[in-house]
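Look over what follows to help learners.
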Amino acid sequence: MIAAAIEEFLALHPESVVLEDGRVVFEMRTAKFNLSTEHNRCTLQLWSEDANMVRRVVATRLREGILRLSVLRFGQTKPQSLELLANRDRRTPSEREAVRVKYLRVLERVLQRAFPEWTLDGLSSAMDLERSFGPAYARGRLVQGQRAWAVVAVNPQESQATIDGALTVGILWLDRCRSMGDGRRVWQGLKVIVPRGTAALAASRMAWLNDRAAQWELWELDDKTEELAQRDLRDHGNIATHIVHAPNHAAVRERFSEAARLVMALVPEDLCADVEQVVRGGAEMAFLLHGLEFARVRAGYAGSSFNVQEQITVGAGANETPLIPVNEVMLREYVARLFERRHAAGDKRGPLFRMQPERWLESILRRNVEALDAHLSAEHVYTQVPAFAAGDRGMLDLLGVLRDGRLAVIELKADEDMHLALQGLDYWVRVRWHQLQTSDDATRPSFGLGEFQRFGYFNGVALSLAAPKLYLVAPALRVHPATETVLKYLSPKVEWELVALDERWRKMAKVVWRKRSSDARLPS
Protein backbone atom coordinates (compact mmCIF):
# COMPACT_ATOMS: atom_id res chain seq x y z
CA MET A 1 0.00 0.00 0.00
CA ILE A 2 2.84 2.41 0.79
CA ALA A 3 4.58 1.83 -2.53
CA ALA A 4 1.28 2.09 -4.41
CA ALA A 5 0.49 5.44 -2.75
CA ILE A 6 3.88 6.87 -3.75
CA GLU A 7 3.74 5.50 -7.28
CA GLU A 8 0.21 6.81 -7.86
CA PHE A 9 1.07 10.27 -6.50
CA LEU A 10 4.10 10.58 -8.78
CA ALA A 11 2.11 9.29 -11.75
CA LEU A 12 -0.63 11.88 -11.22
CA HIS A 13 1.79 14.73 -10.43
CA PRO A 14 4.83 14.45 -12.74
CA GLU A 15 5.82 18.07 -11.88
CA SER A 16 5.94 17.40 -8.13
CA VAL A 17 8.90 18.21 -5.90
CA VAL A 18 10.45 16.42 -2.90
CA LEU A 19 11.19 18.43 0.24
CA GLU A 20 13.44 17.53 3.17
CA ASP A 21 13.58 19.93 6.13
CA GLY A 22 11.61 22.44 4.07
CA ARG A 23 14.18 22.46 1.25
CA VAL A 24 13.57 21.20 -2.29
CA VAL A 25 15.95 18.28 -2.83
CA PHE A 26 14.46 16.79 -6.01
CA GLU A 27 12.26 18.04 -8.83
CA MET A 28 10.51 14.99 -10.24
CA ARG A 29 10.31 16.55 -13.69
CA THR A 30 14.01 15.69 -14.04
CA ALA A 31 14.77 13.29 -11.16
CA LYS A 32 14.32 9.52 -11.18
CA PHE A 33 13.07 7.10 -8.56
CA ASN A 34 12.96 3.41 -7.74
CA LEU A 35 10.67 1.59 -5.29
CA SER A 36 11.59 -1.76 -3.78
CA THR A 37 9.22 -3.85 -1.65
CA GLU A 38 11.49 -6.77 -0.82
CA HIS A 39 11.17 -8.40 2.62
CA ASN A 40 7.89 -6.49 3.23
CA ARG A 41 9.78 -3.20 3.41
CA CYS A 42 9.30 -0.22 1.11
CA THR A 43 12.59 1.36 0.08
CA LEU A 44 12.56 4.57 -1.96
CA GLN A 45 15.58 5.66 -3.96
CA LEU A 46 15.70 9.10 -5.57
CA TRP A 47 18.46 10.38 -7.79
CA SER A 48 19.34 13.16 -10.20
CA GLU A 49 22.47 14.58 -11.77
CA ASP A 50 23.23 16.39 -8.50
CA ALA A 51 22.05 14.12 -5.68
CA ASN A 52 21.13 10.61 -4.56
CA MET A 53 18.93 9.53 -1.65
CA VAL A 54 17.79 6.17 -0.25
CA ARG A 55 15.14 5.99 2.49
CA ARG A 56 12.97 3.26 3.96
CA VAL A 57 9.34 4.46 3.99
CA VAL A 58 7.29 3.32 6.98
CA ALA A 59 4.10 5.37 6.52
CA THR A 60 2.38 7.84 4.18
CA ARG A 61 -0.30 10.49 4.66
CA LEU A 62 -1.99 12.46 1.86
CA ARG A 63 -3.51 15.85 2.62
CA GLU A 64 -4.23 18.90 0.46
CA GLY A 65 -1.95 17.90 -2.40
CA ILE A 66 0.95 16.92 -0.12
CA LEU A 67 2.05 13.32 0.40
CA ARG A 68 3.99 13.14 3.67
CA LEU A 69 6.35 10.19 4.07
CA SER A 70 7.69 8.93 7.39
CA VAL A 71 11.15 7.63 6.48
CA LEU A 72 14.16 6.02 8.10
CA ARG A 73 17.77 6.53 7.13
CA PHE A 74 19.88 3.38 7.10
CA GLY A 75 21.08 2.57 10.61
CA GLN A 76 18.63 4.93 12.32
CA THR A 77 15.46 4.13 14.28
CA LYS A 78 13.91 7.61 14.62
CA PRO A 79 11.62 8.46 11.69
CA GLN A 80 12.09 11.66 9.75
CA SER A 81 9.81 13.31 7.23
CA LEU A 82 9.86 13.80 3.47
CA GLU A 83 7.17 15.74 1.64
CA LEU A 84 6.03 15.25 -1.94
CA LEU A 85 4.30 18.40 -3.18
CA ALA A 86 2.09 18.42 -6.24
CA ASN A 87 2.79 22.16 -6.57
CA ARG A 88 6.06 23.84 -5.66
CA ASP A 89 4.35 27.03 -4.52
CA ARG A 90 3.76 26.47 -0.79
CA ARG A 91 2.37 29.91 -0.03
CA THR A 92 -1.02 30.00 1.61
CA PRO A 93 -3.88 31.59 -0.34
CA SER A 94 -3.77 34.63 1.97
CA GLU A 95 -0.02 35.06 1.38
CA ARG A 96 -0.48 34.92 -2.39
CA GLU A 97 -3.36 37.38 -2.19
CA ALA A 98 -1.28 39.83 -0.11
CA VAL A 99 1.52 39.79 -2.68
CA ARG A 100 -0.92 40.39 -5.53
CA VAL A 101 -2.68 43.27 -3.76
CA LYS A 102 0.68 44.92 -3.04
CA TYR A 103 1.70 44.50 -6.68
CA LEU A 104 -1.54 46.17 -7.82
CA ARG A 105 -0.61 49.29 -5.83
CA VAL A 106 2.89 49.31 -7.34
CA LEU A 107 1.50 48.80 -10.84
CA GLU A 108 -1.00 51.62 -10.42
CA ARG A 109 1.76 54.09 -9.46
CA VAL A 110 4.01 52.93 -12.30
CA LEU A 111 1.32 53.17 -15.00
CA GLN A 112 0.14 56.61 -13.89
CA ARG A 113 3.73 57.86 -13.93
CA ALA A 114 4.67 56.20 -17.25
CA PHE A 115 1.49 57.21 -19.12
CA PRO A 116 0.39 60.52 -17.55
CA GLU A 117 -1.84 61.45 -20.50
CA TRP A 118 -3.88 58.28 -20.12
CA THR A 119 -6.43 57.40 -17.45
CA LEU A 120 -6.03 54.06 -15.70
CA ASP A 121 -9.38 52.31 -15.47
CA GLY A 122 -10.56 49.14 -13.74
CA LEU A 123 -7.22 47.72 -12.58
CA SER A 124 -8.00 44.41 -10.88
CA SER A 125 -6.85 40.83 -10.40
CA ALA A 126 -10.28 39.44 -9.57
CA MET A 127 -10.84 35.85 -10.62
CA ASP A 128 -13.10 35.21 -13.60
CA LEU A 129 -12.77 31.53 -14.41
CA GLU A 130 -15.57 31.64 -16.98
CA ARG A 131 -13.30 33.77 -19.15
CA SER A 132 -10.03 32.09 -18.04
CA PHE A 133 -8.83 35.07 -15.99
CA GLY A 134 -7.02 33.93 -12.86
CA PRO A 135 -5.96 36.06 -9.87
CA ALA A 136 -2.26 35.86 -10.80
CA TYR A 137 -2.79 38.41 -13.58
CA ALA A 138 -3.56 42.11 -13.09
CA ARG A 139 -5.88 43.45 -15.79
CA GLY A 140 -6.82 47.00 -16.60
CA ARG A 141 -7.37 49.65 -19.26
CA LEU A 142 -5.58 52.85 -20.24
CA VAL A 143 -8.09 55.29 -21.71
CA GLN A 144 -7.67 58.59 -23.55
CA GLY A 145 -10.86 59.91 -25.08
CA GLN A 146 -12.11 57.31 -27.56
CA ARG A 147 -8.78 55.49 -27.60
CA ALA A 148 -7.83 52.70 -25.21
CA TRP A 149 -5.23 50.03 -24.50
CA ALA A 150 -5.76 46.73 -22.72
CA VAL A 151 -3.15 46.07 -20.02
CA VAL A 152 -2.08 42.77 -18.44
CA ALA A 153 0.68 42.40 -15.86
CA VAL A 154 2.13 39.68 -13.63
CA ASN A 155 4.23 40.01 -10.49
CA PRO A 156 7.69 38.46 -9.97
CA GLN A 157 6.52 36.14 -7.18
CA GLU A 158 4.57 34.00 -9.63
CA SER A 159 6.07 30.92 -11.25
CA GLN A 160 7.85 31.16 -14.58
CA ALA A 161 5.04 29.16 -16.19
CA THR A 162 2.53 31.75 -14.94
CA ILE A 163 4.67 34.60 -16.26
CA ASP A 164 4.96 32.84 -19.62
CA GLY A 165 1.16 32.63 -19.74
CA ALA A 166 0.69 36.41 -19.54
CA LEU A 167 0.43 36.87 -23.31
CA THR A 168 -2.36 34.30 -23.65
CA VAL A 169 -4.30 36.07 -20.89
CA GLY A 170 -3.51 39.44 -22.45
CA ILE A 171 -4.94 38.45 -25.83
CA LEU A 172 -8.08 37.13 -24.16
CA TRP A 173 -8.37 40.34 -22.14
CA LEU A 174 -8.00 42.53 -25.25
CA ASP A 175 -10.62 40.46 -27.05
CA ARG A 176 -12.93 40.74 -24.03
CA CYS A 177 -12.49 44.53 -23.87
CA ARG A 178 -13.40 44.83 -27.53
CA SER A 179 -16.48 42.62 -27.19
CA MET A 180 -17.75 44.62 -24.18
CA GLY A 181 -17.44 47.98 -25.96
CA ASP A 182 -20.21 49.83 -27.77
CA GLY A 183 -18.10 50.32 -30.89
CA ARG A 184 -17.26 53.96 -30.20
CA ARG A 185 -14.01 53.23 -28.37
CA VAL A 186 -11.02 52.22 -30.47
CA TRP A 187 -8.91 49.56 -28.80
CA GLN A 188 -5.44 50.21 -30.14
CA GLY A 189 -3.79 47.15 -28.71
CA LEU A 190 -2.28 45.37 -25.73
CA LYS A 191 0.46 46.26 -23.27
CA VAL A 192 1.96 43.21 -21.50
CA ILE A 193 4.04 43.89 -18.39
CA VAL A 194 6.28 41.14 -17.00
CA PRO A 195 9.02 41.13 -14.33
CA ARG A 196 12.43 42.37 -15.34
CA GLY A 197 14.51 39.69 -17.07
CA THR A 198 11.58 37.40 -17.97
CA ALA A 199 10.43 38.84 -21.30
CA ALA A 200 12.33 36.62 -23.78
CA LEU A 201 9.57 34.10 -24.47
CA ALA A 202 6.85 36.73 -24.69
CA ALA A 203 8.98 38.76 -27.12
CA SER A 204 9.49 35.71 -29.33
CA ARG A 205 5.75 35.11 -29.41
CA MET A 206 4.68 38.73 -29.90
CA ALA A 207 6.92 39.08 -32.96
CA TRP A 208 4.54 36.66 -34.71
CA LEU A 209 1.24 38.30 -33.78
CA ASN A 210 -0.91 40.09 -36.32
CA ASP A 211 -0.02 43.80 -36.31
CA ARG A 212 -3.14 44.53 -38.38
CA ALA A 213 -5.34 43.18 -35.60
CA ALA A 214 -3.71 45.22 -32.82
CA GLN A 215 -0.60 47.01 -31.67
CA TRP A 216 1.54 44.94 -29.34
CA GLU A 217 3.84 46.30 -26.63
CA LEU A 218 5.97 44.39 -24.15
CA TRP A 219 7.31 46.02 -20.99
CA GLU A 220 9.54 44.85 -18.15
CA LEU A 221 8.94 46.15 -14.64
CA ASP A 222 11.43 46.17 -11.77
CA ASP A 223 9.03 46.18 -8.83
CA LYS A 224 11.76 47.28 -6.41
CA THR A 225 12.88 50.40 -8.30
CA GLU A 226 9.50 50.74 -10.07
CA GLU A 227 11.32 51.28 -13.37
CA LEU A 228 9.38 50.35 -16.49
CA ALA A 229 11.29 49.61 -19.72
CA GLN A 230 9.87 48.72 -23.12
CA ARG A 231 11.21 45.64 -24.87
CA ASP A 232 12.04 45.77 -28.58
CA LEU A 233 10.04 42.95 -30.17
CA ARG A 234 12.59 42.67 -32.98
CA ASP A 235 15.15 41.57 -30.41
CA HIS A 236 14.14 38.28 -28.85
CA GLY A 237 17.57 36.78 -28.31
CA ASN A 238 18.95 33.43 -29.34
CA ILE A 239 16.68 30.53 -30.19
CA ALA A 240 16.93 28.22 -27.16
CA THR A 241 16.90 24.96 -29.11
CA HIS A 242 19.39 22.56 -30.60
CA ILE A 243 19.41 19.79 -33.18
CA VAL A 244 21.23 16.51 -32.66
CA HIS A 245 22.30 14.27 -35.51
CA ALA A 246 19.71 11.70 -36.48
CA PRO A 247 21.02 8.22 -35.58
CA ASN A 248 21.39 5.39 -38.06
CA HIS A 249 18.24 3.49 -37.09
CA ALA A 250 19.11 0.28 -38.91
CA ALA A 251 22.58 0.13 -37.34
CA VAL A 252 21.24 0.77 -33.82
CA ARG A 253 18.56 -1.92 -34.18
CA GLU A 254 21.16 -4.39 -35.41
CA ARG A 255 23.49 -3.48 -32.55
CA PHE A 256 20.82 -4.05 -29.91
CA SER A 257 19.09 -7.00 -31.57
CA GLU A 258 20.01 -9.48 -28.80
CA ALA A 259 19.07 -7.02 -26.04
CA ALA A 260 15.77 -6.36 -27.80
CA ARG A 261 15.11 -10.10 -27.90
CA LEU A 262 15.59 -10.29 -24.10
CA VAL A 263 13.22 -7.39 -23.50
CA MET A 264 10.56 -8.76 -25.82
CA ALA A 265 10.79 -12.10 -24.01
CA LEU A 266 9.26 -10.32 -20.99
CA VAL A 267 6.21 -9.23 -23.02
CA PRO A 268 3.13 -11.45 -23.30
CA GLU A 269 3.51 -13.13 -26.68
CA ASP A 270 0.13 -12.10 -28.07
CA LEU A 271 0.82 -8.42 -27.23
CA CYS A 272 4.25 -8.01 -28.80
CA ALA A 273 2.72 -6.08 -31.71
CA ASP A 274 1.71 -3.32 -29.25
CA VAL A 275 5.33 -2.58 -28.38
CA GLU A 276 6.99 0.31 -30.17
CA GLN A 277 10.79 0.14 -30.38
CA VAL A 278 12.16 3.68 -30.64
CA VAL A 279 15.79 4.58 -31.34
CA ARG A 280 16.74 7.40 -28.95
CA GLY A 281 20.28 7.84 -30.23
CA GLY A 282 23.33 5.94 -31.33
CA ALA A 283 23.65 4.30 -27.91
CA GLU A 284 20.07 3.93 -26.67
CA MET A 285 16.84 2.27 -27.69
CA ALA A 286 13.52 2.45 -25.83
CA PHE A 287 10.54 0.10 -25.66
CA LEU A 288 7.14 1.76 -25.35
CA LEU A 289 3.63 0.57 -24.63
CA HIS A 290 1.18 3.19 -25.90
CA GLY A 291 3.78 5.90 -25.39
CA LEU A 292 4.86 4.78 -21.91
CA GLU A 293 8.50 3.78 -21.84
CA PHE A 294 8.73 0.53 -19.88
CA ALA A 295 12.21 -0.68 -20.86
CA ARG A 296 15.37 0.59 -22.46
CA VAL A 297 18.79 -0.64 -23.53
CA ARG A 298 21.87 1.56 -23.37
CA ALA A 299 25.49 1.13 -24.31
CA GLY A 300 28.24 2.71 -22.22
CA TYR A 301 31.68 2.17 -20.83
CA ALA A 302 32.00 -0.36 -18.01
CA GLY A 303 33.59 1.17 -14.93
CA SER A 304 36.96 2.77 -15.64
CA SER A 305 37.70 0.56 -18.64
CA PHE A 306 37.14 1.24 -22.32
CA ASN A 307 34.97 -1.86 -22.74
CA VAL A 308 31.52 -1.05 -24.05
CA GLN A 309 28.76 -2.71 -22.04
CA GLU A 310 25.03 -2.92 -22.71
CA GLN A 311 22.57 -2.43 -19.87
CA ILE A 312 18.88 -3.29 -19.99
CA THR A 313 16.57 -1.60 -17.50
CA VAL A 314 12.85 -2.10 -16.95
CA GLY A 315 10.37 0.20 -15.24
CA ALA A 316 7.45 2.52 -15.94
CA GLY A 317 8.39 6.16 -16.26
CA ALA A 318 11.49 6.98 -14.24
CA ASN A 319 11.26 3.83 -12.11
CA GLU A 320 14.17 1.76 -13.47
CA THR A 321 15.46 -1.67 -12.44
CA PRO A 322 18.36 -3.44 -14.22
CA LEU A 323 17.33 -6.67 -15.93
CA ILE A 324 19.49 -9.46 -14.50
CA PRO A 325 18.81 -13.21 -14.18
CA VAL A 326 17.82 -13.05 -10.51
CA ASN A 327 14.98 -10.57 -11.07
CA GLU A 328 13.79 -11.67 -14.50
CA VAL A 329 10.69 -13.41 -13.11
CA MET A 330 9.76 -10.35 -11.04
CA LEU A 331 10.16 -8.01 -14.01
CA ARG A 332 8.18 -10.35 -16.25
CA GLU A 333 5.31 -10.13 -13.74
CA TYR A 334 5.65 -6.34 -13.64
CA VAL A 335 5.47 -6.09 -17.43
CA ALA A 336 2.45 -8.39 -17.48
CA ARG A 337 0.64 -6.12 -14.98
CA LEU A 338 1.51 -3.10 -17.10
CA PHE A 339 0.04 -4.68 -20.23
CA GLU A 340 -3.07 -5.77 -18.32
CA ARG A 341 -3.79 -2.19 -17.20
CA ARG A 342 -2.58 0.05 -20.03
CA HIS A 343 -4.78 -0.55 -23.04
CA ALA A 344 -7.65 1.28 -24.73
CA ALA A 345 -10.32 -0.61 -22.78
CA GLY A 346 -8.46 -0.43 -19.45
CA ASP A 347 -9.65 1.03 -16.15
CA LYS A 348 -9.63 4.81 -16.69
CA ARG A 349 -9.05 5.36 -12.97
CA GLY A 350 -5.86 3.31 -12.87
CA PRO A 351 -2.55 5.23 -12.66
CA LEU A 352 -0.92 3.16 -15.42
CA PHE A 353 -3.81 3.99 -17.74
CA ARG A 354 -3.70 7.68 -16.85
CA MET A 355 0.05 8.18 -17.06
CA GLN A 356 1.43 10.34 -19.87
CA PRO A 357 -1.69 10.70 -22.05
CA GLU A 358 0.14 13.00 -24.48
CA ARG A 359 2.73 10.32 -25.11
CA TRP A 360 -0.05 7.81 -25.77
CA LEU A 361 -1.54 10.19 -28.31
CA GLU A 362 1.90 10.83 -29.78
CA SER A 363 2.54 7.11 -30.24
CA ILE A 364 -0.73 6.74 -32.16
CA LEU A 365 -0.04 9.66 -34.47
CA ARG A 366 3.60 8.79 -34.97
CA ARG A 367 2.42 5.47 -36.40
CA ASN A 368 -0.49 6.98 -38.34
CA VAL A 369 0.12 10.68 -38.92
CA GLU A 370 -2.01 10.52 -42.08
CA ALA A 371 -5.05 10.34 -39.79
CA LEU A 372 -4.53 14.10 -39.24
CA ASP A 373 -4.03 14.98 -42.89
CA ALA A 374 -3.75 12.66 -45.88
CA HIS A 375 -1.11 15.00 -47.31
CA LEU A 376 1.33 14.26 -44.44
CA SER A 377 4.11 11.80 -45.17
CA ALA A 378 4.02 8.69 -42.98
CA GLU A 379 7.69 7.99 -43.67
CA HIS A 380 9.14 11.07 -41.97
CA VAL A 381 7.79 11.81 -38.47
CA TYR A 382 10.14 12.92 -35.68
CA THR A 383 9.62 13.73 -32.01
CA GLN A 384 10.98 16.92 -30.42
CA VAL A 385 13.26 18.01 -33.29
CA PRO A 386 14.62 20.56 -32.60
CA ALA A 387 14.76 19.93 -28.86
CA PHE A 388 14.14 22.73 -26.38
CA ALA A 389 17.37 23.46 -24.55
CA ALA A 390 15.51 23.93 -21.27
CA GLY A 391 14.03 20.44 -21.40
CA ASP A 392 10.48 19.16 -21.61
CA ARG A 393 7.80 21.86 -21.73
CA GLY A 394 5.04 19.48 -20.69
CA MET A 395 3.84 19.19 -24.25
CA LEU A 396 4.94 17.00 -27.13
CA ASP A 397 5.92 18.13 -30.55
CA LEU A 398 6.03 16.14 -33.76
CA LEU A 399 7.83 17.36 -36.83
CA GLY A 400 6.70 15.99 -40.15
CA VAL A 401 6.53 16.94 -43.80
CA LEU A 402 3.75 17.33 -46.34
CA ARG A 403 4.01 15.55 -49.64
CA ASP A 404 4.95 18.81 -51.37
CA GLY A 405 8.05 19.12 -49.14
CA ARG A 406 6.64 21.67 -46.71
CA LEU A 407 7.51 21.11 -43.04
CA ALA A 408 4.66 20.39 -40.63
CA VAL A 409 4.81 21.30 -36.94
CA ILE A 410 2.36 19.22 -34.89
CA GLU A 411 1.50 20.16 -31.28
CA LEU A 412 -0.37 17.60 -29.19
CA LYS A 413 -2.41 18.00 -26.03
CA ALA A 414 -4.55 15.28 -24.47
CA ASP A 415 -6.06 17.56 -21.82
CA GLU A 416 -7.53 21.05 -21.88
CA ASP A 417 -4.89 23.80 -21.99
CA MET A 418 -5.57 27.47 -22.70
CA HIS A 419 -1.95 28.00 -23.78
CA LEU A 420 -2.02 25.44 -26.61
CA ALA A 421 -1.97 28.05 -29.40
CA LEU A 422 1.07 29.98 -28.18
CA GLN A 423 2.97 26.87 -27.14
CA GLY A 424 2.45 25.58 -30.65
CA LEU A 425 3.72 28.92 -31.94
CA ASP A 426 6.87 28.50 -29.81
CA TYR A 427 7.78 25.33 -31.62
CA TRP A 428 6.83 26.75 -35.02
CA VAL A 429 9.16 29.74 -34.47
CA ARG A 430 12.07 27.47 -33.62
CA VAL A 431 11.48 25.10 -36.51
CA ARG A 432 11.29 28.06 -38.89
CA TRP A 433 14.53 29.49 -37.49
CA HIS A 434 16.44 26.23 -37.96
CA GLN A 435 14.88 25.71 -41.36
CA LEU A 436 16.41 28.95 -42.62
CA GLN A 437 19.90 28.31 -41.27
CA THR A 438 22.06 27.49 -44.30
CA SER A 439 25.63 26.39 -44.85
CA ASP A 440 26.00 28.98 -47.60
CA ASP A 441 25.32 32.69 -47.72
CA ALA A 442 22.23 33.23 -45.57
CA THR A 443 20.99 35.85 -48.02
CA ARG A 444 20.81 33.20 -50.74
CA PRO A 445 19.11 30.19 -49.10
CA SER A 446 19.66 27.17 -51.28
CA PHE A 447 17.49 24.11 -51.81
CA GLY A 448 18.26 21.30 -49.36
CA LEU A 449 20.78 23.16 -47.21
CA GLY A 450 18.62 23.68 -44.15
CA GLU A 451 19.85 22.42 -40.77
CA PHE A 452 17.40 19.54 -40.61
CA GLN A 453 18.82 17.76 -43.63
CA ARG A 454 22.39 18.57 -42.66
CA PHE A 455 21.70 16.71 -39.40
CA GLY A 456 20.24 13.66 -41.14
CA TYR A 457 16.49 14.30 -41.10
CA PHE A 458 14.14 14.05 -44.09
CA ASN A 459 16.67 12.18 -46.21
CA GLY A 460 15.57 11.92 -49.81
CA VAL A 461 12.92 14.64 -49.45
CA ALA A 462 13.05 17.82 -51.48
CA LEU A 463 12.22 20.22 -48.65
CA SER A 464 10.40 23.42 -49.46
CA LEU A 465 11.54 26.76 -48.05
CA ALA A 466 7.91 27.73 -47.45
CA ALA A 467 7.09 28.45 -43.82
CA PRO A 468 5.99 25.34 -41.88
CA LYS A 469 2.32 24.55 -41.39
CA LEU A 470 1.21 24.43 -37.75
CA TYR A 471 -1.17 21.68 -36.61
CA LEU A 472 -2.72 21.93 -33.12
CA VAL A 473 -4.23 18.61 -32.08
CA ALA A 474 -6.42 17.71 -29.10
CA PRO A 475 -9.51 15.60 -28.32
CA ALA A 476 -12.63 17.56 -29.26
CA LEU A 477 -13.89 17.99 -25.69
CA ARG A 478 -10.41 19.01 -24.53
CA VAL A 479 -9.98 21.98 -26.89
CA HIS A 480 -9.96 24.99 -24.56
CA PRO A 481 -12.40 27.76 -25.61
CA ALA A 482 -9.50 30.24 -25.50
CA THR A 483 -7.62 28.46 -28.27
CA GLU A 484 -9.63 29.78 -31.19
CA THR A 485 -9.62 33.32 -29.80
CA VAL A 486 -5.83 33.37 -29.52
CA LEU A 487 -5.37 31.82 -32.96
CA LYS A 488 -7.29 34.72 -34.56
CA TYR A 489 -4.52 37.08 -33.45
CA LEU A 490 -1.60 35.17 -34.97
CA SER A 491 0.26 36.65 -37.91
CA PRO A 492 -1.06 35.55 -41.33
CA LYS A 493 2.48 34.31 -41.95
CA VAL A 494 1.66 31.42 -39.59
CA GLU A 495 -0.69 29.03 -41.36
CA TRP A 496 -2.43 26.89 -38.74
CA GLU A 497 -4.98 24.12 -38.52
CA LEU A 498 -6.83 23.21 -35.32
CA VAL A 499 -7.65 19.51 -35.40
CA ALA A 500 -10.15 17.95 -32.96
CA LEU A 501 -10.11 14.19 -32.46
CA ASP A 502 -12.84 11.81 -31.41
CA GLU A 503 -12.73 11.27 -27.63
CA ARG A 504 -12.10 7.55 -28.26
CA TRP A 505 -8.70 8.34 -29.78
CA ARG A 506 -6.98 5.59 -27.76
CA LYS A 507 -8.83 3.08 -29.92
CA MET A 508 -8.46 4.99 -33.19
CA ALA A 509 -7.42 8.52 -34.14
CA LYS A 510 -10.36 10.03 -36.03
CA VAL A 511 -10.79 13.72 -36.86
CA VAL A 512 -14.27 15.01 -35.94
CA TRP A 513 -13.75 18.65 -36.92
CA ARG A 514 -11.01 21.02 -38.02
CA LYS A 515 -10.62 24.77 -38.40
CA ARG A 516 -8.04 26.60 -40.51
CA SER A 517 -6.40 30.00 -40.41
CA SER A 518 -7.97 30.81 -43.76
CA ASP A 519 -11.39 30.56 -42.09
CA ALA A 520 -10.54 32.85 -39.17
CA ARG A 521 -11.97 36.37 -39.20
CA LEU A 522 -9.60 39.25 -38.48
CA PRO A 523 -10.38 40.78 -35.03
CA SER A 524 -11.48 44.40 -35.12
Notes: The chain has a mean pLDDT of 87. The CA atoms of residues 416 and 479 lie 6 Å apart. The two ends are 58 Å apart (CA to CA).
